[in-house]
Amino acid sequence: MAKQKIAIIEDDLAISQMYRLKFEAEGYEIAVAENGQVGLELIKNFKPHVVLLDMMMPLMNGDEVLRHLRAEDWGQDIPVLILTNVGKEEVSKSLDALNVHSYIVKAEMTPKQVVERIKEVLGG
């Protein structure tokens, strides 16, 4: 069976590498982008089963990535989990309309808990 793919779009290299290692150890195929602009291209070409998306990034923030993604036929059904340190009440209300699967505040969940959440999303 082909590995399930996860795209991590996160501008903090330490965080993205930590999650990359965690998910690879669980047998997932991972691709990482350091900003939203690169991330959107990565999603289009990598075709991940799930996207972990940071909100506060250079060039294109998470809101913009999500809006562009949902505007494309190929991007409408990909589960997106917001991974951020911005409290949910501080994030744009438009996220609810953009079909966000889950909202994870980095400071409130361990990487192991994030891996478990992704497994649930992927039906594992």
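Above is the first protein from milestone M3; the second protein from the same milestone is given next.
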Amino acid sequence: MCLAIPSQVVSVEGDDPAFLLGKVNFGGITKQISLAYTPEVRPGEYVLVHAGFSMQVVDEQEAKRSWQTLEELLKEFGEADSP
């Protein structure tokens, strides 16, 4: 099973769609990724990121719902690991 993380696009670099790069914010962490699969995305929009590639553009509401679910899972697993 694969997990794609919702991220907000901070900037887009390049002219060739096949080599388009972008900086994204993963809840406070900024990374550079490939936007080759989503060349239509613009700064401020959200994408799902897997293995350094944006896989799909999503709306802000969907991104926030996904983050909320991830935070709930992390909290639950974190409590389960505590002695």
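Note on the second protein: Strands lie at 5-13, 21-26, 29-34, 46-50, 53-58.
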